[in-house]
């Protein structure tokens, strides 16, 4: 992940604007969603001082790029239920989470664990983007021209798509 980020940031021939989160990002997202489900008021928990909002603004992670300056966010995720790492790439312009998982479909336990985490991201990221006034800062995004987000409020969950044709590994754990 480190080298991917450095390549995207510093290669003079690369026009892709990307940043990464650390492995704590998904823990913060899961933590706030679980707390919101317990008391039924996750809107109160979502604020600009939360770790997720600070990460979006680049106040939290050392050497992170603010999300307003990028088009993609790479989110590494460790699914403790499936004992496996996978990558989610958030395409900001298309409001879509792309899932890169070398074990996807190799068992219901793994697939359910992956989709549960991705759905939490899908729900929570838009709420934090609204809270941080992200779309007010990004005048270059036109939601009317995108198939995933046209006629949808910016606070609605993100679309999720599994990336096809990536290398797959054999699951020896189930």
Automatic annotation (TrEMBL):
<keyword id="KW-0645">Protease</keyword>
<protein>
    <recommendedName>
        <fullName>Ubiquitin-like protease family profile domain-containing protein</fullName>
    </recommendedName>
</protein>
<dbReference type="InterPro" id="IPR003653">
    <property type="entry name" value="Peptidase_C48_C"/>
</dbReference>
<dbReference type="InterPro" id="IPR038765">
    <property type="entry name" value="Papain-like_cys_pep_sf"/>
</dbReference>
<comment type="similarity">
    <text>Belongs to the peptidase C48 family.</text>
</comment>
<dbReference type="GO" id="GO:0006508">
    <property type="term" value="P:proteolysis"/>
</dbReference>
<keyword id="KW-0378">Hydrolase</keyword>
<dbReference type="GO" id="GO:0008234">
    <property type="term" value="F:cysteine-type peptidase activity"/>
</dbReference>
<feature type="domain" description="Ubiquitin-like protease family profile">
    <location>
        <begin position="1"/>
        <end position="174"/>
    </location>
</feature>
<dbReference type="Pfam" id="PF02902">
    <property type="entry name" value="Peptidase_C48"/>
</dbReference>
